[in-house]
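Quick check before the chapter quiz. The format below is the same one you will see on the exam, so make sure you can read both the input and the output lines.
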Amino acid sequence: MTVKVAPRIVTPANAAETAATLAACARDRAAVVTIGGSTLQTLGNAPRRCDVALHTSALHGIRDYDPRDMTAGIEAGTTLAEIARVLAEHGQWIPFDAPLPERATVGGTLAAGWAGPRRAVYGRPRDLVIGSTIALADGTLARAGGMVVKNVTGYDMSKLYVGSLGTLGVIVRANFKTLPRPPVRRLAIAPVADDLRERTIAAIGGLAIEPAAALVIDGYPRIARYPGATLRLVLLFEGTEAVVERGTRDVRSALGRAGVAETLLHDGAEAEALFGEIVDAYIDAHGERTLTYRTTGLPSLAWSRARTGEAVARENGLHAESIADLRTGDTILRFSARTGATFAARLAALDAGVRGAFEHATVLAGGETVRGSIDAWGPEPSTIATMRAIKAHFDPAGILSPGRYVGAI
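Here is the expected output.
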């Protein structure tokens, strides 16, 4: 019988202790998994080994924040909610758009390479990074960029660690360019009847003022509720009062011509909270009976990918729910069964069906056993040799989240 040994938990107090911990683990060949808020821990494969769980909670605080220069240095363990509260006092923000911001940390969000539904307007979190401090596996601290937006020294090196899921180093601090916070926010929710869905979705493409986010939600009954509607169109408008009012008039007119009689409007903090619930749903899984994929592609095909996902589910006797992003092209597909046993029996066929239907699909969320049964990334990309060479250079002992990244890196 194999006995599973719990990992040793380490909580470094600062960047130097983080680097020293990694150096000691490299000497001992102990596998290290970095833990932030554990909100995106289900993204990618489960690590092959975890001897040491390195928690970043003590790496906490907002440093060198200059509202006039609109730059901020943020320790990796700082939550996104705290960052939002501090920056809001100065009318600024960083649009992370990540799930569960009260728990999610800035280091974990960057390490996961998270890209939310508003990135078509504001860019991805990585696009706002102007500098970083990284603890490497050999015990050194690598710094790139700085605190000046125009400083490009080592700028691209910061991007290397974003999305690497802790397989190249541990992000201990990131410096950001902050943005002006939109003064007005409005969320519109409209029902989409089956016989009007194509016309309704097409109507959004001709809006003079584009929404910050445009989503078609099928299922997910706990978010973006509209009485009696399973299929809902969700539009988020942000900006000045004049811009939001004009956008609202235009969308009501466009939807009215498409046959949608009514639209629910939510403003301010209520709109922000409702939109946050939608983003949270991206990683909402139900034990061992669900699995969520993110597929990517052209925004014009996001809705058709949702329909393809439904077909894959039917072929395997499963249920599908979807969030189709009409601005970024993402389609979130959550497959489920009534019981974990049923889902487990159909998992291999489901994954094969998803890989056959979509060129780009990665696993976002699911139970530990479910995720451990498949490769979250699918076929290896043509660049896998280069990726392995980079891994070998930064982590020659192979101790940093082994197996979690593409190609079991």
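If your answer matched, good. The mean pLDDT is 94.
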